Amino acid sequence: MKIIQVNENVSLRRDPDSGNEKIQAVVDDILATVRHDGDEALRAYTKKLDGAETDALFVTETERVEAYESLEDEAVEALQQAIANIRDFHERQRPQSWMTTKSDGTILGQQVTPLDAVGVYVPGGKAAYPSTILMDVIPAQVAHVGRIVMTSPPDETGRLHPAVVVAASELGVETILKAGGAQAIAALAYGTESVPAVDKIVGPGNDYVALAKRAVFGQVDIDMIAGPSEIVIIADDSARPDYVAADLLSQAEHEERATAIVVTPSKTLAKKVSAEVERQLEDLPRAAIARQALADYGAIYLTADLSEAVAVVNELAPEHVEVLCEQPFAYLGKIKHAGAIFLGENSAESVGDYFAGPNHVLPTNGTARFSSPLSVDDFLKKASIIHYSAEALAENHENIATLARLEGFEAHARAVDIRRKRGGPKS
């Protein structure tokens, strides 16, 4: 891996929109076609882009049964335990409606209600992602979303990976669409003859999915524009090079554009990690993908000290941050921008990806500066509640009218004035 001394001439951030112009044009065409032609276009794109030809747009009961038969019992049990952990974590997030009453009879509050319908996109292609189903569907269920439609690209036989079908079935997802890419996003956003439109689309995907989600925002809500996966590891001399290397590779194997970075003041550790990465790559099944990612987006940054290392993390605002230092909790309050923070040598990023409970749908491309992990809040709406008593209006109507006239809205002012006219007829 490249070992780079951090200085003011080193550019740390990547351009998330680089090279997307041609893809956007293709995406726009797909969205328009599916919106116009519905199921016919959905089937055509599934055949053309996924190589799958099938009359069944949705997973059948037979496919569910066969998925369970093909999956080992221990895999099902692991999914069930992960579901329990993730549900327990998200149950603690659910906000409650509330109201407060003032002495003058004013009642103010907030009503929290779930979304009616949500679409969950689950990537396919180079890997199966049952964990993404758990992370997207469970908070929606905790929020009591009325209807959940899941979609994922099929293989050439027109089927989804058994683990994907089983994970969805364990959660009770009834509607599983076999479609991927921008065409699936279009179906969820606009609806087709067979696919009911939703109010929000969540879940990560490739560039086509990300740009399609961006394009339909406004027609529906979306969770975020998810980019390639990222990990940044803060490490000192106490860190084990084999742990650091393994965690870097756990992200680099995702795809060729994944980011895997170590930030450390230790030249000794930097050299050991670089060597250890090469050793572990030798028998890694997805070594070719990982090597490309590390060559293009991997680095070991040398800093003056750990304080500068934290500053680098805050500038990058990455999806995942690991703190592999002698006193990891000492740096927790100093890390301002990160999607998820993993503290200590036993808290591998994989623990959060699959099992611990917190959501693994996280902000990428530096958006952790202003956004948060997917949560129950993403599936809820909040409406303000206002009840003004006659006493409250009498006390405050002049202030309200004054502010309305300050902005030049006379009708606003008169709307409160008319209520203060004594003896006026009711109509």
Mean pLDDT metric: 93
Q: State the CATH class of the largest domain.
A: Alpha Beta
Query: Oligomeric form of this entry?
Result: single chain
Q: Can you say what the CATH homologous superfamily of the largest domain is?
A: Nitrogenase molybdenum iron protein domain
Number of strands: 14
Secondary-structure-derived class:
alpha/beta
Order of strands in the sheet with the most strands?
A: 1-11-10-9-12-13
Which percent band covers the strand fraction?
A: 15-25%
| Reported CATH architecture of the largest domain | 3-Layer(aba) Sandwich
What's the shape?
A: globular
Integer tally of domains: 3
> What is the terminal separation in angstroms?
78 Å
Biggest β-sheet description: 6 strands, parallel
Q: Could you name the ranges where pLDDT drops below 50 across 5 or more consecutive residues?
A: none
| Number of helices in the DSSP assignment | 15
Helical content class: 40-55%
CATH fold name of the largest domain: Rossmann fold
Order of helices and strands: EHHHHEEEHEHEHEHEEHEHHEHEEHEHH
The whole-angstrom Rg is: 26 Å
Architecture blueprint of SSEs:
Elements: E1 3-5, H1 21-37, H2 39-50, H3 61-70, H4 73-91, E2 98-101, E3 107-114, E4 117-121, H5 130-142, E5 147-152, H6 162-170, E6 175-178, H7 181-190, E7 200-202, H8 207-216, E8 221-222, E9 230-235, H9 241-252, E10 259-264, H10 267-281, H11 287-297, E11 298-302, H12 306-316, E12 320-324, E13 340-343, H13 349-354, E14 380-387, H14 390-406, H15 410-420
Parallel strand pairs: 1-11, 4-5, 4-7, 5-6, 7-8, 9-10, 9-12, 10-11, 12-13
Antiparallel strand pairs: 2-3, 3-14
